């Protein structure tokens, strides 16, 4: 069944490509009818995610914003970033930080000159206010973290924020890195209820402000700030005057738009179309990169019998990673490789691939092992209907949900769900794959109302190069804090509980990666993760970002991989700041030969002298006229004075 579905997808893609062999002329300068801003001044991007939230930009509440709408990429800025293309640490709204008192005092130094997009200054008081706000309201994302770690926060001046911690935390600075906790403007949020505030239009420090929203087009339009602080402070100014982010149209619409130059981004096309696009438009280019999140399968560890690690390993033995790796859409050879560990195969993370651990916990496709595990647990077909039951006679039935629609190009996560469901059915477990659109799937996962999820296996480890962030979210405290039926606001929603892993996490929490005991604890943490297997790695994720160089150049490319390229990451800010317009700059006319320039200068000076002489002559005439006028005025004034004197004296003369 799945092979047939894949064949249909392949056939439809081939048909679409063949239909698109009709010449499509690239026509830079033509204004798209659907675009409300001048094309040559606009960066046009899109995302496969169907945008649904158009009047809210609050990142701390459920369904409070669509972060990939340009909100996190163009408008919100974080205190600091990491450039994952180069490894560079980028202090942004701050200039740095330091710890004191055995990692219990965290000091942030705010960059001078930063302003919010309403013109108000960004200060340390905004940081302190945000931390205290999150600590105050349990309904907000980041509350659990701030409540656990923060004792108090204060700002002795506008450029110094001091956060007192309840216990040592050498990693607290990661809470404010890109993707993590944004800082809000105190002067706005102190007057609202953050649990309901929509922050519309959004006020942040980024280079763009919201200009317009078109819900019917699922489109956000952003306009460059003329007063963007980084222009003056750091010399970083974006060249696009406008930036558009929209939900990607279907491939048959997007392809001609892309090759005609109506959009700057082609990633949401089936990857097979990109070579054809380049044939039509030489400005098409692309770059592959390894995403930090392998594709994986998440298991609800709070739901029987999925809470048994043996069951999770049985499921893992039913995933044919080699086959799925060949199905990954890519222009690279090979497309990708099976994932044997739950993080991206980045060079900086390979020190955590402990050979003994991964030899002991080897991921392989072995349906026979899976059957043996289920049989040993007593999960057998008791009534002869062909389906396995639990020991109490309840039929085992699981739904594998995924946020990726089978209708979209290259629906890999849905394919994984279908393949796994098929393998489960083969050994007598009733399983189905189901597409659940966001944000509905987010609620199902957050409340623990799911069995299995096929999606991306993201933990904080690749972002921070630290095993602590692989396992911290699986601490039992989160499962106890948010049992099934309550929205998960912190930690992993699979709700794993393992006291052994908890102990290792607690030990890692108080030491940094430079501590002598760190690697020993890191190896133990990885081993316990693989033993528990709350999330199952499937394949390494190779993405291809396709750009158009008709209007903007200096995109990240092979040989010029200067910035981390995903458009849905906050770090895309630095891609935008590096773009260069192809619009010709006004050039001065070529200089004339020296003698000609001297002659021209002499003539110009002579003309100016002549004009000056004429002006002086005219001025002299005016002065002469003025003198004559003055003499007349003096004479008339004298006569008037004389008449006045006679008029005064005449009565006295008559009396005499």
Describe it.
- This protein has about 650 residues and is an alpha+beta fold.
- The protein is built from 21 helices and 19 strands.
- Helix 9 packs antiparallel against helix 12.
- The radius of gyration is 35 Å and the shape is globular.
Summarize the structure.
This protein is 35% helix and 16% strand. It is an alpha+beta fold and 656 residues long. Helix 3 crosses helix 4.
Q: Which key terms come to mind for this protein?
A:
656 residues; alpha+beta; five-stranded mixed beta sheet; four-stranded mixed beta sheet; 21 helices; disordered N terminus; disordered C terminus
Low-confidence stretches: 1-23, 632-643, 652-656
Strand residue percentage: 15-25%
Q: Based on helices, strands and strand pairing, what is the structural class?
A: alpha+beta
* Terminal Cα span: 141 Å
Q: State the shape.
A: globular
The number of E-state strands comes to 19
Query: Mean of the pLDDT scores?
Result: 89
Helical segment count: 21
User: What is the strand arrangement across the widest sheet?
Assistant: 14-13-15-12-16
Helical content band: 25-40%
Secondary structure layout:
Blueprint: H1 2-19, E1 42-47, H2 71-75, E2 80-83, E3 88-91, E4 94-100, E5 105-110, H3 124-136, H4 143-149, E6 150-157, E7 160-165, H5 186-189, E8 208-214, E9 219-224, H6 229-233, E10 242-247, H7 251-260, H8 273-280, E11 284-290, E12 295-299, H9 309-316, H10 321-327, H11 355-360, H12 367-376, E13 397-402, H13 412-426, E14 430-435, H14 440-446, E15 452-456, H15 461-464, H16 468-471, H17 476-481, H18 499-509, H19 518-532, E16 535-539, E17 542-548, E18 552-553, H20 572-578, E19 580-581, H21 594-655
Parallel strand pairs: 1-10, 13-14, 13-15
Antiparallel strand pairs: 2-3, 4-5, 5-7, 6-7, 8-9, 9-10, 11-17, 12-15, 12-16, 18-19
Helix pairs in contact: 3-4, 9-12, 18-19
């Amino acid at each position: 069944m799945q092979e047939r579905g894949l064949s249909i997808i392949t056939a439809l893609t081939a048909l679409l490509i063949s239909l698109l062999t009709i010449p499509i002329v690239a026509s830079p300068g033509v204004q798209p009818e659907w675009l409300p801003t001048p094309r040559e001044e606009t960066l046009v991007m899109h995302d496969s995610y169907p945008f649904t939230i158009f009047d809210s930009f609050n990142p701390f509440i459920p369904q409070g914003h669509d972060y990939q709408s340009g909100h996190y990429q163009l408008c919100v800025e974080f205190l600091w970033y990491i450039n994952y293309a180069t490894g560079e640490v980028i202090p942004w709204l701050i200039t740095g930080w330091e710890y004191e008192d055995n990692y219990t005092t965290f000091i942030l130094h705010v960059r001078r000159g930063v302003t919010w997009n309403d013109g108000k200054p960004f200060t340390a008081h905004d940081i302190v206010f945000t931390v205290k706000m999150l600590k105050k309201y349990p309904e907000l994302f980041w509350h659990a973290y701030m409540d656990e770690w923060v004792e108090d926060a204060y700002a002795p001046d506008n450029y110094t924020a001091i956060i007192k911690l309840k216990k040592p935390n050498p990693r607290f600075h990661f809470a404010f890195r890109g993707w993590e906790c944004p800082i809000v403007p105190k002067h706005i949020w102190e007057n609202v209820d953050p649990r309901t505030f929509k922050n519309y239009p959004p006020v942040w420090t980024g280079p763009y402000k919201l200009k317009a929203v078109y819900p019917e087009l699922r489109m956000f339009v952003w306009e460059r700030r003329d007063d963007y602080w980084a222009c003056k402070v750091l010399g970083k100014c974006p060249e696009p005057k406008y930036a558009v982010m929209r939900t990607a149209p279907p491939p048959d619409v997007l392809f001609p738009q892309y090759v005609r130059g109506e959009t700057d981004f082609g990633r949401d096309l089936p990857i097979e179309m990109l070579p054809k696009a380049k044939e039509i438009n030489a400005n098409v280019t692309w770059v592959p990169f390894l995403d930090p999140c392998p594709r994986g399968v998440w298991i609800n560890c709070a739901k029987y019998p999925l809470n048994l690690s043996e069951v999770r390993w049985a499921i893992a033995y039913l995933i044919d990673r080699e086959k799925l790796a060949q199905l990954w859409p890519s222009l690279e050879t090979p497309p990708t490789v099976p994932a044997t560990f739950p993080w991206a195969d980045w060079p900086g993370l390979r020190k955590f691939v402990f050979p003994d651990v991964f030899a002991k916990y080897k991921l392989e496709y072995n349906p026979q092992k899976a059957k043996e595990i289920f049989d040993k647990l007593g999960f057998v077909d008791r009534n002869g209907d062909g389906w396995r039951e639990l020991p109490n006679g309840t039929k085992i039935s699981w739904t594998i949900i995924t946020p990726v629609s089978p209708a979209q190009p290259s629906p890999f996560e849905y394919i994984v769900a279908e393949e796994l469901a098929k393998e489960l059915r083969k050994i007598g477990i009733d399983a189905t794959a189901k597409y659940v659109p966001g944000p509905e799937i987010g609620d199902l996962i957050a409340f623990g109302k799911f069995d299995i999820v096929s999606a991306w296996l993201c933990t904080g480890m690749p972002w921070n190069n630290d095993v602590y962030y692989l396992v911290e979210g699986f601490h039992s405290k989160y499962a106890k804090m948010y049992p099934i039926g309550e929205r998960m606001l912190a930690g992993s929603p699979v709700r794993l509980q393992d006291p052994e892993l908890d102990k290792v996490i607690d030990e890692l929490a108080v030491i940094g990666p430079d501590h002598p005991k760190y690697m020993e604890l890191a190896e133990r943490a990885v081993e316990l993760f693989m033993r528990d297997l709350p999330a199952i790695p499937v394949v390494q994720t190779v993405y291809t970002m396709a750009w158009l160089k008709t209007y903007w150049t200096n995109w990240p490319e092979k040989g010029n991989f200067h910035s981390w390229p995903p458009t849905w990451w906050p770090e895309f800010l630095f891609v935008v700041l590096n773009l260069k317009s192809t619009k010709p700059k006004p050039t001065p006319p070529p200089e004339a030969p020296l003698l000609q320039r001297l002659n021209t200068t002499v003539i110009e000076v002579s003309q100016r002298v002549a004009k000056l002489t004429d002006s002086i002559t005219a001025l002299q005439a005016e002065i002469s006229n003025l003198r004559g006028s003055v003499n007349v005025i003096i004479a008339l004034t004298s006569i008037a004075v004389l008449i006045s004197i006679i008029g005064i004296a005449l009565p006295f003369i008559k009396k005499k």
